[in-house]
Each structure stands twice: as C-alpha cells, then as structure tokens.
Design a protein that fits this description.
This protein is mainly α. The protein has 14 helices and no strands. Bound molecules: dephospho coenzyme A (COD) and adenosine-5'-triphosphate. Its EC number is 2.4.2.52.
C-alpha cells in the first residue's frame, strides 16, 4: 500500500510537470511564452517557465500523497491549500518573483488531488467533479489579499480561476478535452490538435489575465479572433494572432493553464485505460 501510494504520487507529479512543459513548448501560441518568443510578457522566458515547472514536482507529489484514497473534506482542502501556497513561494523563489504558474498550481493541484483520491481509477469526468468538490470547501487560512483575478471577477461579474474550479472545470469538460479528442479522431497531428485545444479555450474562456490587462474590449477581441484562427486552421493565422495579441498586450494565461490541465487529465486518464494516445502519436509522427 505504502509503495503504491508513493509510486502513484511520483508518477502523477511527473505527469503534471510534463504537461506544464508541453504547454510552454507548444509553438506558436498567441500572446504566450513559447519557443519563438515571450509573447506579451516582458519578464518571462521559456527557460524560466521550464525551471518553474520542474520546481513544482514536489508540490504536486505532496498533494497526491496526502490525497491518496481519501475523500473531499474541509481538512483536506486546508492541507492542500497549505502545500499549494508553499508551491507558489517555491515558484517565486525559482523565478525571482515572476508569476509563471500560479493559475496552473491551483488547477493541476486540485486535479491531482482528485485523481489520487480515486487511486488512479477515476475517469477524467470523475476527477473534474471531485476536484470541484474539493474547491468548494472553504479554506479559513486563505489570506484575504487583493489579487488581479478577484478585482476583475468582481468588476466584470465573471468566473475566474476559483469559479472555474468550483464548478468542476466546465471549460475542460465541455470545450478543451472534447476538442483534443475530436482533433485526434480526425487524424490531425498531435501538435495541431493541441493548438486547436488552446484556440478553442481562448475563444470561450473569461480569462482574468486578459481582463485585468485590457478590460472587456481586449477579452472580446481575443475570443473573436481566436475563433477565426481556429476556423482558418493554419499556422500562419496563429502567427498573425500572436502579433495582434502582443501589440495589444493580450496574454491568455488562464487558457494556457487550462491547456496544461487538459493535457494532464488526458494523460492521467490514458494511464488508467492503458491507452496512451501521446505515445501512440509519437510513434506515428
Ligand atoms: C485561486 C487562485 C488561482 C487565486 O486566484 P485569483 O483569481 O484570486 O488570482 P490571480 O489573478 O493572481 O491568478 C489567477 C490565475 O488563474 C488563471 N486564470 C485566469 N482566468 C481563469 C479562468 N477563467 N479559469 C481558469 N484559470 C484562470 C490565470 O493564469 C491567472 O494568473 C490561487 O492562487 C489560490 O487561491 N491559491 C490558494 C492556495 C490553494 O488553495 N491551493 C489549492 C490547490 S493547489
Ligand atoms: N506559456 C505561458 N506564457 C505566459 N503565461 C502563462 C503561460 N502558461 C501559463 N501562464 C499563466 O499566465 C499567468 C501569468 O500571467 P500574468 O503575468 O498576466 O499574471 P499576473 O502576474 O497576474 O499579472 P501581470 O504580470 O500582468 O501584472 C500565470 O499565472 C501562468 O499560470
């Protein structure tokens, strides 16, 4: 039992880090850090993003370990929050104070906790639903600090990272995961399937990163043009979108986080079913 728990936690944490690295390596991404540029971010580099992702392995491993085989409860919520906040501190130490993965620690932290509750036996739908249950429990130790997300969620009446999780990740369940699977089913190459997944997230999500930098107009612009790029279906249209986002200081950081979370869920579920689509794609391309 002890070894199974330890092995699951280590493997799941590695999967989480791999998902974060896959997200940042995916190129070209509009407004985000990728292999060719740093998007609309002056203080971020791909190397910093990679280092940050690797620094989070212990955080994810600890969350999985304490959640293994348990059920959502207030005490577990508080324990996970404590580990998550330490993860944020470690991230800021690694990056010299730059926010690289705050939203991703939150989303993947909850999902890895839920996956561990099911000891690796839950479907992606069960994982999201369990993660929502955990996020709905109150955390009395949560500091009442003013964040960009809180400010714009109130101002524009939208769901931020917290609402998305508390509702059981509807944008992953109904938008991104179906797009990833549909793209693969059409025989679309893996990298393009991931780009489609990111574009559809940008087209649908009320991303508080975009709102706090550019307000409602920027969010509308991002949604409309991501949707058009998805319809156009060419790498050139994504490159043009990248230029347009950089000029307008638009960064879809929330969509990037949910893409990483989608890739994580896809892999965790793949392990469960024994059908590793990622490996299959690597063999065939
Ligand atoms: C909930 C969190 C993300 C704070 O959210 P808030 O909106 O107040 O903050 P902030 O603007 O600083 O960051 C939000 C980040 O979420 C991402 N995001 C933005 N919009 C969205 C959206 N609609 N959906 C999902 N993610 C989004 C972005 O990357 C953004 O940077 C989180 O940091 C937190 O409360 N952590 C406490 C520790 C904890 O409870 N951890 C438990 C699991 S590890
Ligand atoms: N490839 C990526 N490029 C840029 N941001 C990303 C990427 N992947 C994820 N993100 C997310 O974007 C967020 C960073 O966005 P941003 O810098 O706008 O946030 P901020 O620190 O709240 O505000 P700002 O820097 O605008 O004052 C991180 O929380 C991170 O989770």
């Amino acid at each position: 039992m002890y070894n199974t728990k330890l092995a699951f936690s280590g493997n799941a944490a590695e999967t989480a880090v791999r998902s974060l690295i896959e997200e940042v390596e995916l190129t070209p991404k509009p407004g985000l850090v990728d292999r060719t540029n740093h998007g609309a971010h002056q203080d971020l580099t791909i190397d910093l993003m990679r280092k940050s992702a690797i620094s989070l392995k212990e955080t994810f491993e600890e969350i999985a370990y304490i959640s293994y085989g348990s059920n959502p409860s207030i005490s577990l919520r508080e324990e996970i929050a404590e580990i998550g906040r330490h993860g944020e501190i470690r991230m800021f130490e690694t990056t010299g104070g730059v926010n690289t993965h705050k939203g991703a620690i939150w989303a993947i932290g909850l999902l890895i906790s839920a996956a561990a509750m099911g000891k690796g036996g839950y479907s992606s739908k069960e994982i999201m639903s369990r993660a929502g249950e955990i996020a709905r429990h109150p955390d009395q130790h949560c500091p009442d600090t003013d964040t960009n997300g809180k400010r714009v969620s109130t101002k524009y009446g939208v769901n931020g990272a917290k609402g998305e999780a508390q509702q059981g990740f509807p944008h992953i369940e109904h938008v991104s995961l179906p797009m990833l699977k549909r793209s693969r089913a059409f025989g679309i190459p893996e990298e393009t399937a991931k780009l489609n997944t990111l574009l559809t997230l940008i087209a649908h999500l009320d991303d508080t990163c975009i709102l706090h930098r550019g307000g409602f107009k920027a969010l509308e612009f991002a949604k409309k043009h991501a949707s058009a790029a998805l319809t156009a279906g060419s790498i050139d249209s994504i490159k043009r979108l990248d230029e347009a986002f950089i000029i307008r200081n638009i960064s879809p950081g929330g969509s990037a986080d949910l893409l990483a979370a989608t890739l994580f869920l896809d892999k965790i579920q793949a392990t469960v079913t024994g059908h590793d689509v990622q490996k299959e794609a690597e063999y065939t391309h």
